[in-house]
Fold:
Amino acid sequence: MPNPATSPSTATARAPSNIAFVKYWGNLDDAARLPFNDSISMNLSAAHTTTTVTFDTALRTDTLTIDGRAYNPQHAADAVAIARVTHHLDSLRGLAGTTDRAAVVSVNSFPMGTGIASSASAFAALSVAAAAALGLALDERALSTVARRGSGSAARSVPDGFVRWYAAATDHDSFAASIAPATHWDLHDVVAIVSRAHKAVGSGGGHALAASSPLFAERIARLPARLAAVEAAIAARDVAALGEQIEAEALELHAVAMTSRPAVLYWDGATIELLHHVRRWRADGLAVWFTLDAGPNVHLICEGHVAPAVAAALAHLPYVESSLDNSPAAGARIIGPGEGRGPGAEHA
Ligand code: PMV
Structure:
């Protein structure tokens, strides 16, 4: 419980977004966000969210400000976002034994709606900041579990560097943990933004439809071998082995989405153009591979020394609006007073 003598109690956390090499697609339990399968990702250095949570007895409702815009509870879309934050904070308030409302102020280092998963960084930062502001002593596993309930992939933004999120049938057993620190390998994700249009079907809708695809069971059956190969490629810093796996994996995920009922088609014309370019560039000697999340933008995966050439090649393509070069990043951290003391500190 926050100390009433020091109310309002506040904390600020920063969390990275992440790119999955083996994707989360489909839930055993949609409400609890318990995934069907393990997934593996890398935290992104240039795409992060910084969130300050201030619990204040004077507030009658939770308030939400993102990138300088105060969300208006009278507007339907804003009210949905505020309700999702309130629902998330309620579980932490329950643990702390308080009903105090909070002001949540969030700033993204990248524009929302660019196909970079802002919900992963947002719910990781919100969970870590809120737990600290409430004085809850949660370890990294507990914080990852809490973040997962807000947005599945947020579980992977809590630990450091390269991360595996474990599927499980029970809430407290599905969490993410680091498989290698950010310093392990200078692997880059150059995100090519080809569209800023809002997705017709968000990831939540996609997860709910996944099992309706006739290819879904086949994908799940192949995943244990895929997960082992991706983890081994990361351990060995073998970019060609990793690249081969992640391209096949991204195409399998999209094959499931495209064959769901109703079908979900995330690609634009520019997406498919770019996939062909990546293959041509590789045939010409540029060591770069692609992956895709639930959207039209393309993530180009390469080692750090190749990233400037990849960004330069993208700059020549008229349909690529911009690109964002990411290296591996640490996980969610409290910043400000106590800077550097992350939830993973005890494992370091
Ligand atoms: O965490 P969500 O519900 O936004 O789902 C993320 C889904 C993918 O980005 C397509 C895959 C992944 O594992 O990040």
Observations:
- The radius of gyration is 20 Å.
- The first strand starts at residue 9 and ends at 22.
- The chain is about 35% helix and 25% strand.
